[in-house]
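Service request form, structural biology core

Requester: graduate student, group of Dr. S.
Request type: structure prediction, single chain
Budget code: on file
Notes: please return the result as structure tokens.

Sequence provided:
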Amino acid sequence: LSPTRSSSRNGEKDWENGSTTSSLTSNTEYTGPKLYKEPSAKSNKHIIQNALAHCCLAGKVNEGQKNKILEEMEKSGANNFLILFRDSGCQFRSLYTNCPDTEEINKLTGIGPKTISRKMIDRLYKYNSDRKQFSQIPAKTMSASVDAITIHSHLWQTKKSGTPKKVAAVKS
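Core staff response, request fulfilled:
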């Protein structure tokens, strides 16, 4: 009885040791696709880059501005970006970084407020890469699917007409 008992003990030990060794070797030898992937924060970086290149700042005349903005995007460590339009005409004004967890929207480059709060947002837009155009989203709350926004028109600083840039000489 004792040899059977010892062999079963050894068998268990061998199984435990064998499984440990085999799993170590299998991890180092396996070169196929990774089955488990660490969850990563969803990013709209490529969508925004396409929108800037093919819609907002398309063409030769906008190439300098487009390249500067794309460079700023690369320097930034952000995953989510928002384009700010002047109004429903979808005229590009600036690019913002968007942190959905903290709800912070901070200007990266362009013309517009340094930060945008949820109360300032007027309309939400989604970029359609097939049509190469933006379409308004009938929603009032921000989500990961929002690629561009407009702010309420009263928030845009208007040029003060009190001080003209050129003063004409008055003839007397």
